[in-house]
Amino acid sequence: MAIKVTHLDHFVLTVADIDRTCDFYQSVFGMRREDFGEGRTCLVFGSQKINLHLVGKELEPKARAAGPGTGDICLITQASADEIGRHLSAFDVEIIDGPVLRTGAQGPITSYYFRDPDGNLLELSCYGDA
């Protein structure tokens, strides 16, 4: 019998500059920075969080090839595709691709692709907006 996974709690990004990363994710996504433990930092959104590790000072155990720019993440918003495009433009975010139709975990999504300051590929998407 397999164990059933119910949801994602957190994931880790290894970054070159904690403050720069927090500034980007707070301003563009409205995430909340939280400092905890002994010098640790995370970004909170909804009921999940992104733990941040500073490159060269990662916590153990860590990913085998942890490093800035190795993430590829899709985030879902309730905003429409048009609103996503306008929002990213308002923050001078360079859009790599989008709007494009993709398949999300719960069906069709409309997505925009761009990068964070470390070069991680981000996909900001919405359901129900073709």
Automatic annotation (TrEMBL):
Taxonomy, superkingdom: Bacteria
Q: Which UniProt keywords apply?
A: Dioxygenase, Lyase, Oxidoreductase
Q: Which CDD domains match?
A: GLOD5
PROSITE patterns annotated for this entry? VOC
Q: Please state every residue range assigned to the domain named VOC.
A: 7-127
Q: Which SUPFAM superfamilies match?
A: Glyoxalase/Bleomycin resistance protein/Dihydroxybiphenyl dioxygenase
Gene3D superfamilies in alphabetical order: 2,3-Dihydroxybiphenyl 1,2-Dioxygenase, domain 1
Instruction: Output one GO MF annotation.
Output: lyase activity
List the protein's name.
Catechol 2,3-dioxygenase-like lactoylglutathione lyase family enzyme
Highest classification ranks of the organism:
Bacteria, Pseudomonadati, Pseudomonadota, Alphaproteobacteria, Rhodospirillales
